[in-house]
């Protein structure tokens, strides 16, 4: 089974891939889709859709887990994130990939054991759980692996 975890973003969209065999994680990898900040929103959404579609073609996931929207202090950012999620969900739906969604709090609780964990705590636990030799280059990529781990933990239970 291959799980694709996605941490949506309009400038950096993190993705993490877990390969599961007989209930054990046998491979893990992550990266980000980098979107030029100078692009207009519609162009960014196109790039996100195209990037996710390429990842789907490359890894052929059996299921995708996507972090849901959270509302911070800036409502405009929340709307932009919602658009990015829409492009991601469309790419997954077009390929018939089942989608689960987790709130940031659910992901943190699943990976760290505390729904209020810091990004650094999540990064540390992802590295330890997956026995990663090198720290992922981006926190967005690490967060995406955490989302995939959340799905893995849900499947195990």
Our measurement of the CA-to-CA distance between the termini, rounded to an integer number of angstroms, reads 16 Å
| Shape summary | globular
The amount of beta strand, in percent, is: 15-25%
Neighbour order of strands in the largest sheet: 3-2-1-4-5
Low-pLDDT residue intervals, each spanning 5 or more residues? none
Describe the protein's architecture and organization.
Helix 3 (104-112) crosses helix 5 and helix 4 packs across helix 5 (139-156). The protein has a five-stranded mixed β-sheet. It is globular. The mean pLDDT is 93. The chain has helices spanning 41-59, 75-94, 104-112, 119-130, 139-156, and strands at 2-7, 12-21, 24-34, 63-67, 99-102. It has one domain (2-156): Nucleotidyltransferase, domain 5. The longest helix has 20 residues, at 75-94. The chain is of the alpha/beta class and 157 residues long.
Task: Give a quick precis of the structure.
This protein is an alpha/beta fold.
Task: Describe the structure using short key phrases.
157 residues; alpha/beta; Nucleotidyltransferase, domain 5; 5-stranded mixed β-sheet; 5 strands; globular
């Amino acid at each position: 089974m291959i799980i694709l975890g996605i941490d949506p973003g309009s400038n950096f969209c993190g993705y993490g891939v877990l390969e599961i065999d007989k209930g054990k994680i046998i491979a893990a990898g992550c990266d980000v889709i980098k979107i030029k900040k100078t692009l207009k929103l519609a162009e960014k959404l196109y790039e996100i859709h195209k990037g996710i579609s390429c990842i789907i073609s490359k890894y052929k996931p059996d299921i995708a887990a996507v972090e849901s929207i959270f509302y911070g202090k800036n409502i405009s950012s929340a709307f932009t994130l919602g658009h990015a999620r829409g492009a991601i969900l469309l790419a997954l739906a077009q390929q018939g990939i089942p989608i689960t969604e987790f709130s940031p709090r659910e992901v943190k609780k699943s990976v760290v054991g505390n729904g209020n964990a810091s990004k650094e705590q999540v990064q540390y636990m992802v590295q330890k759980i997956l026995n990663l030799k090198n720290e992922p280059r981006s926190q967005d990529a690490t967060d995406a692996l955490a989302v995939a781990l959340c799905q893995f933990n849900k499947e195990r239970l």
